[in-house]
What we know:
The complex is a heterodimer. Chain A is an alpha+beta fold. Chain A has helices at residues 48-66, 87-94, 98-128, 135-145, 151-166, 175-193, 196-208, and strands at 11-13, 20-22, 31-33, 40-43, 72-76, 79-83, 170-173. The two termini of chain A are 14 Å apart. Chain B is an alpha+beta fold. Chain B folds into two domains: 1-38; 40-206, no CATH class. Chain B has seven helices and six strands. In chain B, a hairpin with a 3-residue loop joins strand 5 (161-162) and strand 6 (166-170). In chain B, helix 1 (43-63) runs antiparallel to helix 3 and helix 1 (43-63) runs antiparallel to helix 6. Chain B starts with 11 loop residues before the first strand and ends with a helix. Chains A and B meet through strand 1, strand 5, strand 6, helix 2 and helix 3 of A and helix 3, helix 4, helix 5, strand 5 and strand 6 of B.
Amino acid sequence: MITRDIGHSGEIACHSCDLLVHVGTLRHGESASCPRCGCFLTRYRDDAYHRILAFASAGLLFLVLANSYSFLSFSSTGLESVMTLRETPGALWNNDMPGVAMLVTAFIIVIPAGVLLLMLALSSALIQGIYHPWLAPIAKSVFLAQNWSMVEVFIIGVIVSLVKIAAMATVVVGASFWAYTAFAICFTAAVANLDRYQCWERIEALGAG
Amino acid sequence: MTALTTAANRGLASCHVCYKLAPTTVHQCPRCGSTMHLRKNDSIQRTLALLVTACLLYIPANLYPIMYTDQLGSTEASTIMGGVILLIELGSAPIAMVIFIFSVMVPSGKLMAMFYLVWTVKRHSPLDPRQRSIMYRVTEFIGKWSMVDVFVVSILVALVHLGGLLVIRPGVAALSFAGVVIVTMIAAESFDSRLIWDNMEEKNSDN
Lengths: 209, 207
């Protein structure tokens, strides 16, 4: 059973303009914004951690699928070359671009996968209502890392690449592309359901009681 | 504006990571253990230093080729702007627009917006703080979208390798451009938008 958790004071300092806002108790689906600068502050959902658990586990499954098949294949005059997600950084590495290779891997695979794994642990602990000493460091890492995931940007990159080379040869979209798109949607939905203020209030409430 | 109280007025600092409010005398967040500051440390200096770094990286990012196309023995180098022009010539104007917006307008616009915000905060400008706050939030949100061009190059390099017929290789600009995007993202993160509002409150209390 999830108990309603609000801060002892129910106050937030707007992180955009430092105004003290009394948020009080929010009901399911309600959100609060700063009256002075309009910055979004927090949203409460009864089922937030269930949603996160669902989207994070689905997202991780889709990421495994995205790494298992061909992403795009390209053929011209009888020759064919195939791109898979796993080999993409390797191609950059072999072209004397180890820096770019590592950055791309981090932004499109390592950071998003790490964030989803940590969110899985975080949401299942919060659903069960059990306090663990690792909750605070995990939540901290999730909030620090989530801005550095670029899954949705990568999808746009794929679409732009498709149009760019469609004139040169025949390009076929593979199963991995669809799996990665589903992964990007699940990732975005999981992150959108994690509210920073509510999450920390809940961790604190669990730690106190 | 008298009815509005800020956390700083009440002697409270808000944790950057978990939004916990604690007295300014506390240096470590009681909830998540992060270091607490009333405002981000040396926000203006750090942001300015990172912006200058990004400007310097922006020069090679535009002058050097971002990718090379080897077709039947001849090599063609293309810069970021060159790629946009090539796409227009090929007749795909919408995609040329996408690349132009993400790779040219967003990074340069973002640099200008951040310089403008730093400048107005330093000058204690009375300009509408709400609008400047929105400008900062848009800048912060849009930052990572400039990575599109770097991803396009990585995809094309991984995809197009047909022996001697057609090969695409990455250029130095890919690295410097990725640098521009990352450094401007860190610059936006080190800027403290509350400084925009602090100025205004100083003005109010002076009157």
